[in-house]
Each structure stands twice: as C-alpha cells, then as structure tokens.
Design a protein that fits this description.
With 458 residues, the chain is an alpha+beta fold. The chain has 7 helices and 12 strands.
Length: 458
C-alpha cells in the first residue's frame, strides 16, 4: 500500500480530491436513485389506489355494473369474490384467472409489486389490493399500473450517472492536478534556488511570487532567514578577522619581550622585562576569556532562570572597587529582583564600571531604580562618568566588537574593545537593552531589564 500511495504533494492532493468527490458522488447517486424511484413509485401507487378505492366503493354498494374503464395511469382492474370467481375485469384481463389465488380473510388494503407480470410485457406491475365487505360477502379489488416510467427513469438516471460520474472525476482530477501544479510551482522554484545556495553565495535570494498568498509569505520568510544567515556569516568573518588582529598584537609584543630578555645578559633588567611580559600575558588571557564568552553568547545558550536580588548584585560589584583610582558613588533602590544568571549580570555591571572608570575624571555614579506600573515593572541601571563622553554619532558604534573611539577613548586606555559589546549581548540574552544616552557631562550607559518586582519587606 505504501508503494501505491502517491509520493508527491501534487499527486496526493489529486488522489485525495478524486477520492472525496468519488465518495460524495456515490452517496449522491444512491440517494438520487432512491428518492427518484420512491417518488415515481408513490405516484404510480396513488393512481392505482385511487382506482381501486372507487371500484371497492361501488362493489360495497352492489353497483359493480356502474364501474367505468380504468382511468389514465391504471392498466387493469379485476374484482374477485371470496370463492375465487372473477366478478369484474377490465377488457385487457377478460377471460384470465384471478391475479391471486390466495383468498383474503378480512377487509383491508395491500400494495404489491409483481415481478411476474399479469399482463406480460417488459416492465413490473404495481398492484393495489383492497378487500371490502359487500352484500355477497368479501370481495377483493385489484388495480394495477405499469412501472415502465419508474424503470425508464432508473435506467436513464443510472446511465447518466455511469457516464457523468467518471467524466466528473476525470475533470476534478485534471483541474486539481493543474491548480496544484500552479500553486506548487513557486515552491519548487524556491526549493531549487535554496538547493543551489551555499555558504559562499548567501547573497542570493529566492523568487517571491506576486500572489500575496502563503507561498509568497514563505518566500519572504526564507529571504529574511537568508538575510540573517548572511549577516551572521559576515559578522562571524569580521569577528575572526578582528580576533586574529587583536591576538596578534599581544603575542608579537610578548615574543619581542621574551627575545629581548633572552638576549640581555644583565640580570638587573630581567625583572622589568619579565613584568612587561607578564602584563601582556594577562592581557592575552583576558582577551581569550572575552572571546570564549562571546562564543558562548553567539551559541545562544539559554539563560538560567534564577531569581536574584539585582540591588545586592550591584552593591557587591561596586563595594569591591573601594580602592580604585576613581570612586564609585551609588544610589540603589533596595530589593529589586530579576530573573537571570548571577554570573552574567555581574559581568554586565563589571564591564560598565570598568568602562566608566577607564575614562572618568573624578567620579562614577551608579543609579538603580524601577519604572513602570503594576502589570510590568522594569529595572533601570544607569552608570555615568564625568569623562569626555561619547559623541552622539558613535553611541551605537561603541557597542560593536573591537571598536575603540579616537582621541580620549583610544587603545592607550587599555582594553580590546569587547567590554561594551559583551555587556550588550549579555543584557539582550536577559531580554533587556543597553544603550548610550544623553548626559550633562561624560558618558551615560543605561541598562533596562524586564520582568521585575520589588521584594516584600522582611
């Protein structure tokens, strides 16, 4: 059965449509033939019964001599006594024995369909039998009519259905095959185009049909997916190029220092050379840690859904910097709870503080508060420094990986240009945002995290 079942959508749709239409046609044909035969049979029986009732009434009144010839639609009439004698018969039954040899024992009305034809011929007879009391005893009246019209209608309808049914099925199959082919043509074009797209030509796009239907939306979705893949590929290639460049610099410096230390024979210079090599090693180690973290973020690893006290997290991060060159002043609303990773959110706060202290002149301000209504509150963390600030045109570029602004925010201040990029990616993983916004002086970085509620008082 599986081998016989169609394997293509087009064939399955055609087979399914034909099967449904065939079933509906069979049911409709059976119903039509039944209703048509029943209606014609009822009409024929009505004519015969009407004639039989008239004759029975005359027989009950002892006036059989007043019986007229059968009306239109009635083929014959016969009246038989209880002892089997024919008391009256229409001319076409003159001299013939009783239609039935069984003598009724009580009055009543019966209807029979004779397959053995009383008058011969090619068609069945519908006979109505009425038994009634007369002055001479029980008398049975037989009135019959031919079912030629019923048989002819059945034969004609059956022949029409036998011819029209297959033609209708063939038409449905052809139309379904054609319509399905037209509908699936764009899908096949999309499939063929996608099959030819490799990782080296992600710029290609699938054709979008001008139909504005589901297939067109599928093509648009496919093109949007290709856009994301192309953007991801370009971002990955740029990341690899930038990472290679950033790793090459400390490795080159470290190698130079080690070669100088190897070449210098004065032991008094070795501590200074080794100290410089150690600093470059630490920088290389930090850069490697940042790159690994970015790789984990790009892999879209899920964020642990753990409730944590954001106020305590920020407080711990700032208190650990009491001895730094630039003091950190805080204004933290108490008991603000969010869901996420304690480690990753701590990294967000640490990166923002590192960035602020790197460029601050005399102070760094940290403010934590909540905004919003009872249906949904948002935690807002602001880190502000009094440094040179971020120009309006660079407020998005500072969050790009390996990006350093000129002048005051240059390589001389240290860092690989990954801190803010990591902070934004980690914030986005928690369903929040990180933006650089207007400030009276210096830079102002704002983190917004959703799904926040204030912890109840102890």
């Amino acid at each position: 059965m599986r081998r016989l079942w169609p394997t293509t959508v087009r064939a399955r749709a055609t087979a399914g449509a034909c099967a449904v239409v065939a079933a509906a046609l069979a049911i409709a044909s059976y119903t039509l033939l039944g209703l048509l035969g029943a209606n014609l049979l009822r009409n024929a029986e009505g004519d015969a019964e009407q004639q039989a009732v008239i004759v029975a009434q005359l027989a009950a009144a002892g006036q059989l001599d007043r019986v007229r010839p059968p009306a239109h639609g009635v083929d014959f009439v016969q009246v038989v006594s209880a002892d089997g004698r024919v008391l009256l018969a229409s001319p076409n039954l003159a001299g013939t024995p009783p239609i039935r040899t069984v003598t009724p024992r009580r009055a009543g009305t019966l209807a029979h369909t004779w397959k053995v034809r009383p008058l011969g011929g090619e068609h069945r007879q519908r006979v109505v039998q009425i038994t009634t009391d007369t002055p001479q005893g029980l008398v049975t009246v037989y009135a019959g009519t031919s079912l030629r019209d019923v048989d002819a209608a059945d034969d004609t309808t059956t022949a029409a259905l036998a011819i029209g049914g297959p033609l209708l099925l063939a038409t449905v199959g052809l139309v379904t095959w054609w319509v399905t082919g037209r509908a699936l043509g764009p899908v096949e074009a999309i499939r063929a185009e996608v099959a030819e797209i490799t990782d080296r030509d992600l710029h290609r796009r699938v054709p979008v049909p001008p139909t504005h239907d589901e297939v067109a939306r599928l093509a648009q979705t496919m093109n949007a997916t290709l856009d994301r893949l192309e953007s991801s590929g370009a971002r990955q290639r740029q990341f690899i190029a930038d990472a290679s460049h950033e790793l090459r610099s400390p490795i080159t410096v470290l190698r130079t220092q080690l070669e100088v230390a190897l070449a210098v024979r004065d032991p008094e210079l070795w501590p200074e050379l080794i100290s410089g090599a150690l600093e470059d090693t630490e920088r290389l180690q930090q850069l490697t840690v940042d790159l690994l973290l970015l790789a984990r973020i790009d892999a879209a690893q899920p964020v642990p859904a753990v409730r944590l006290d954001l106020s305590a997290l920020v407080r711990d991060a700032t208190e650990s910097r009491l001895g730094d060159r630039v003091p950190v002043r805080t204004d933290l609303a108490p008991d603000i709870e969010v869901e996420g990773s304690d480690l990753w959110l701590t990294r967000v706060v640490t990166n923002l503080l590192d960035n602020a202290q790197r460029f601050a002149d005399r102070r760094v301000d940290v403010v934590l508060r909540t905004v919003g209504g009872p249906r949904g509150r948002t935690a807002v963390l602001e880190v502000t420094d009094d440094g040179p600030g971020i120009p309006a045109g660079d407020r998005e570029r500072v969050f790009e990986r390996f990006t350093r602004l000129d002048d005051s925010r240059s390589r001389d201040h240290g860092g690989a240009g990954l801190g803010l990029a990591i902070a934004r990616d980690l914030t986005a993983h928690h369903g929040g945002t990180l933006t650089a916004e207007d400030s009276v002086q210096g830079a102002r970085l704002v983190v917004r995290l959703p799904s926040v509620r204030t912890l109840p008082d102890a």
